[in-house]
Description:
The chain folds into 2 domains: 4-91, Rossmann fold (3-Layer(aba) Sandwich); 102-168, no CATH class. The chain has helices at residues 55-62, 102-105, 112-122, 128-141, 146-149, 154-159, 163-168, and strands at 4-19, 24-40, 70-75, 78-79. It has a 4-stranded antiparallel β-sheet. The chain contains 7 helices and 4 strands. The model has no long low-confidence stretch (mean pLDDT 87). By secondary structure, the chain is an alpha+beta fold. It is globular and about 55 Å long. Adenosine-5'-diphosphate binds at residues 15, 29, 31, 49, 51-57.
Amino acid sequence: xxxxxxxxxxxxxxxxxxxxxxxxxxxxxxxxxxxxxxxxxxxxxxxxxxxxxxxxxxxxxxxxxxxxxxxxxxxxxxxxxxxxxxxxxxxxxxxxxxxxxxxxxxxxxxxxxxxxxxxxxxxxxxxxxxxxxxxxxxxxxxxxxxxxxxxxxxxxxxxxxxxxxxxxx
Length: 169
Ligand SMILES: Nc1ncnc2c1ncn2[C@@H]1O[C@H](COP(=O)(O)OP(=O)(O)O)[C@@H](O)[C@H]1O
Ligand SMILES: [Mg+2]
């Protein structure tokens, strides 16, 4: 049990349905209602279901991008559902959402190397030189020759018909 990465217990997220000028809550959308699962190190978990069944809300709530209505999110011995939003910051570098559509999640005018470096910079990881070394390593790891991408922007990569490489990022 010691290689358990994250444990979700009885996760609940209700969205209020508001009506009228006073925005009175008249009901609740039960987007996530009592969801529990554990993920172990090296494991991949697929969450499958029809559109609107609560897959995205489950992910957003685990990351506290939506506030959970109830339940526990146990990660590294901490209950992420109970800590302050401020304290959540140090876990954001481990727990991330990768959105499906590279066009809406990556800035087309930014250079690829800066898109990757931005995440490291946001978490104050490494100095500028080391950050770019790390970016080169990451590109290599996903099968992209760093020299080829180094000064490329999103736009120019799309122009060359290399969308699959963007998805790898
Ligand atoms: N911010 C929100 N406010 C109100 N209802 C929402 C909000 N986000 C999602 N929902 C509702 O919660 C339910 C689950 O949505 P979602 O998690 O996006 O489903 P999925 O990702 O499985 O398609 C849907 O009924 C959706 O309309
Ligand atoms: Mg979704």
